[in-house]
Amino acid sequence: MAPESKREQFRRYLEKSGVLDTLTSILVALYEEPEKPNNALDFIKLQLGAAGPEPADAEALRMELADLQQKCNLLMKENEELRNKLMQFETSPAEGDGE
Predict the structure, then answer these.
(1) Where does the record say this protein resides (predicted)?
(2) Which contacts of 54-63 are long-range, i.e. CB under 8 A and separated by 24 or more positions?
(3) Helix (H) or strand (E) holding 6
């Protein structure tokens, strides 16, 4: 297969899969950006959704998540206990009724 033919096949593949349209729209957005970012590659990654939090940020988020999950579990337990107490009051006869 001739190199030109392979190149054309690859171009059609990129076009058919939407890669060319996506990259074109991202490059147009970068071109139209009034204040050009310092790092164009980070801009492109962000537009593609590939830019994630920095490792230090990710660790801080993991710690916060663990803390919030623990708090949630405690609140769920407290909620269950309070519901049980409420059910006891609702099912027990009220004192002083019928007087």
Answers:
(1) Nucleus
(2) none
(3) helix 3-16
Residue 79 CA to residue 77 CA, distance in Å, equals: 5
| CA-closest candidate to residue 23, choices 35, 9, 11, 34 | 11
Listed in sequence order, the DSSP H helices in 33-94 are 40-48, 55-91
At residue 62, what is the residue type? R
Q: Look up the pTM and report it.
A: 0.47
Give me the residue label for tokens 């790092």: 39
Cβ atoms within 10 Å of 20's Cβ, excluding its own = 14
What single-letter amino acid sits at 19?
V
Query: Is 16 a residue whose pLDDT tops 80?
Result: yes
Lowest pLDDT segment from 9-23, 39-53, 56-70: 39-53
